[in-house]
Design a protein that fits this description.
This protein has 27 helices and 14 strands. The protein is α/β, with parallel strands linked by helices. Helix 4 packs across helix 9, helix 6 runs parallel beside helix 25 and helix 16 runs antiparallel to helix 17. The structure holds a DNA duplex.
DNA sequence: TGCTTCTTCGTTTTT
DNA sequence: CGAAGAAGCA
């Protein structure tokens, strides 16, 4: 194997031997490349001694990526040393630590982890129980008064969603502050009021339920792992000796307790490498992560080497990203938000040195579009995508939108244009369709003498054909012959009246549907969870969709275990409720086992958050409006909820104040302001992430209205105006 | 143009 | 309900 030609910004990093090293890196600098090669080099030189090298990542997909790449380098170097390194997520490390000595934190050894799905089910149940058992009035207390009954319903709907998130965030925050339900109860005995008063009983029941199921949530995992390490010296020393080196990837997303666990494990050998990019820290507002921990590490480390060269993007794209950094750090009017980005210019890779160089398109490929309505923005974007896809069939294209529901809007437009694409998100139309189909089959079971329902279920779940007209004619034929469901299912002669081309996919899938529905109708209704699995067996679906059905069965089984009065109608109502969080999680859990990577010619639709870590030749950034990317705290903000009383408009700020008050007897900060500022900063970084996804072509856009009938106008984000100046000059 | 009154609509991200 | 835009009026 030829010797790798490291870039000058990579050289000091690959020469690392020991100590604490911080590696802040710009997007596309090759973090994974340098970490995997450094690990391999240390292994080659047997620097790990009798110990091991531990590589910690943030996501499961990253674990696989690291494993594959390290294995390959070791094979190339002809080193056979599988046991000297471990790759895992910080959460798996926590599980591993706790499993060694669960008794230290008074746990039974066969505890389990509550995944997102289980957590959602348990917490939703606790909230429902609270409301059903006398809490409803307190729950509604925070709503703004409203006379219009239609809007009362909408308020309630919105608060149900918002309240769930609020409770979840609050419980996490309380846990990290080491406030157990018992402790909260004690502190609040004197003074019960505010939102915490209604969260207390929910928190209490949630903890009780987790315990009785033998479950730990993700927050518990980290907190308890840290506790075990602190309390048990023997175990602590074992781990400190075991890992000669620790590497942490994406460490801008680390929270305080993760940092504490890691530094405890490194205390003995003191060999810690943390790699990350503060400017890509976009999880702070909904998790306890904070880039300040990485900043502190940079200041206290033995070495700090910046990887500031990137070969991902063209120099024009890099220039645009640097413009954003310069504007934010130097000219942003809200001076308290200027530290949103770190002043670190991305540099292009030097030419003719044998490095992989930046893409170099022959013309300026960045543009900015301003549309009248959001609908038009999507429509035009898709037309643009179609043209690029036709003209350059090898280019990968990414369409990034602010919110998940936008993904569906773009997807529908892409379907109209007959383009193949991939959706990254919980509401993926294709994945959601399995749940919808099961719902419509259940709807048919409930109304099995209704011929229209029968046609509907065949249409949605079974009939597969490109021939849309033929399908409609066929359904019309069934209606005209006045056939009943019973005749169709049980009287073979009845189908003779409507025979069309026997070999057509339309007719074949119709026959399959008939048979499947007959099976389902005859299946016992006593166990609804089993019925759902049986429905799954009678649908032609693939592996991933099958996994969704299995999860659905599990969910319904859980519901029945808790309330055996649940009937089929209620299950149908649940399945057809598009807002039910559980289904989003089911889809998420099933589809996130493997990482996703855009390939040449592919089209991907996802939100800005999900785009992190990915790259495309051509990127569209939609919805860069003031509301989505604000620049000062007096603008309209997402954290202000229209449906709540003025005093509780920003309930997350209320909670922070309340916790501050019960702990310190006074409120030390203007939390409303603090939340808005951190939101401004995070949105700036989100835009930075979006821009730096593009290799060659970048199209930024926004629109002045949401739809044509909408009367309210929206302004472009200030950042769009700033970037426009640069683009206008270069584009001529 | 500036003021008052009438009408409309309520956008949220996730390891 | 209340904020914010649209329409009405001097």
């Amino acid at each position: 194997m030829t010797k790798i030609n490291y870039r000058e910004d990579q050289l000091p990093i690959i020469q690392y031997e020991k100590g604490k090293m911080a590696v802040p890196a710009v997007p596309g600098a090759g973090k994974t490349f340098i970490v995997t090669n450094l690990v391999a080099k240390l292994l080659e030189e047997k620097k790990q001694g009798k110990g091991k090298i531990l590589i910690l990542t943030y996501m499961n997909s990253a674990v696989n990526n690291f494993k594959v790449r390290i294995k390959k380098i070791l094979e190339d170097k002809k080193i056979d040393d599988k046991n000297s390194y471990e790759v895992m997520t910080i959460h798996s490390l926590a599980v591993k630590i706790i499993k060694e000595k669960p008794e230290v934190v008074m746990l039974h050894e066969d505890f389990n982890i509550a995944d997102d799905l289980q957590k959602t089910m348990i917490l939703s149940e606790c909230i429902n129980n609270f409301r059903a058992n006398g809490g409803e009035k307190a729950f509604r207390f925070f709503l703004k008064e409203q006379k219009d009954p239609l809007w009362q319903d909408r308020q309630l709907d919105a608060w149900e969603n918002g309240f769930y998130d609020l409770v979840q965030n609050t419980i996490g925050e309380l846990k990290y502050k080491e406030i157990s339900p018992q402790k909260l109860d004690e502190i609040m005995r004197e003074n019960r009021r505010g939102i915490l008063k209604i969260i207390l009983p929910i928190y209490t029941e949630y903890e009780k339920k987790l315990k009785s199921h033998g479950l730990l949530d993700y927050d518990d995992l980290l907190i308890l792992a840290y506790k075990v390490l602190c309390m048990d010296e023997e175990l602590r020393i074992k781990y400190q000796n075991r890992y000669q080196y620790v590497f942490e990837d994406e460490c801008q997303d680390s929270n305080e307790i993760q940092g504490k666990i890691i530094s405890l494990i490194c205390e003995n050998h003191n060999n810690l490498v943390r790699v990350g990019d503060i400017n890509q820290s976009i999880t702070g507002t909904f998790s306890s992560s904070d880039p300040k921990f990485f900043k502190e590490f940079i200041d206290n480390s033995d070495y700090c080497y910046r990887m500031d060269m990137s070969n991902r993007s063209s120099k024009d794209v890099i220039n645009l990203a640097n413009t954003l950094v310069k504007y934010v750090t130097q000219d942003l009017k809200s001076t308290e938000c200027r530290d949103a980005l770190e002043e670190m210019d991305i540099k292009t890779v030097p030419k003719n040195m044998g490095y992989k160089e930046n893409p170099c398109p022959d013309k300026y490929q960045i543009s900015l579009k301003w549309y009248e309505t959001f609908d038009k923005e999507i429509e035009q974007t898709v037309k643009f995508v179609r043209n690029i896809n036709k003209k350059y069939p090898d280019k990968s294209i990414g369409i990034l939108v602010p919110y998940n529901n936008h993904i569906n809007l773009v997807a529908k437009e892409l379907i109209k244009e007959d383009l193949e694409f991939e959706e990254l998100g919980p509401n993926s139309l294709r994945k959601r369709r399995v749940i919808d189909n099961i719902a419509s089959i259940i709807d048919f079971i409930l109304n099995c003498d209704n011929i229209e329902k029968f046609i509907e279920v065949l249409d949605k779940a079974y009939i597969k054909t490109e021939n849309k007209e033929g399908k409609n004619d066929f359904f019309q034929l069934i209606r005209e012959k006045r056939l009943t469901v019973e005749e169709l299912l049980y009287d073979e002669n009845s189908s003779k009246d409507i025979i069309i081309d026997i070999d057509s996919d339309l007719y074949q899938s119709f026959l399959y549907g008939l048979k499947a529905l007959k099976n389902i109708i005859e299946y016992s209704l006593t166990r609804i969870d089993k019925l759902i699995l049986f429905i799954g067996d009678n649908m032609s679906i693939e592996n991933q969709e099958r996994a969704i059905v299995d999860y659905l069965g599990f969910y319904v089984k859980y519901l029945i275990a808790d309330n055996n009065k649940i009937d089929l109608q209620q299950v149908y109502n649940l399945l057809s409720d598009r807002k039910n969080k559980v289904f989003s999680y089911i889809i998420e859990v099933v589809s996130e086992i493997n990482g996703y990577e855009p390939y040449p010619g592919s089209i991907t639709v996802c939100n800005y958050h999900k785009s992190k870590g990915l790259e495309w030749d051509c990127v569209f950034l939609l919805g860069i409006t003031e509301f989505n990317f604000p620049d000062n705290i007096y603008q309209k903000f997402q954290c202000d909820r229209w449906y709540l009383k003025e005093k509780y408009k920003n309930p997350n700020a209320n909670i922070k104040s309340e916790i501050d008050f019960i702990l310190n007897g006074e409120i030390n900060k203007d939390y409303g302001k603090e939340i808005k500022e951190s939101l401004i900063k995070e949105k700036i970084r989100l835009l930075y992430v979006g821009i730096t996804r593009a290799k060659e072509m970048l199209i930024l856009s926004a629109s002045s209205k949401i739809s044509a009938i909408d009367k309210k106008s929206q302004k472009p984000s200030i950042y769009l105006n700033i970037l426009k100046n640069v683009i206008d000059k270069k584009g001529e």
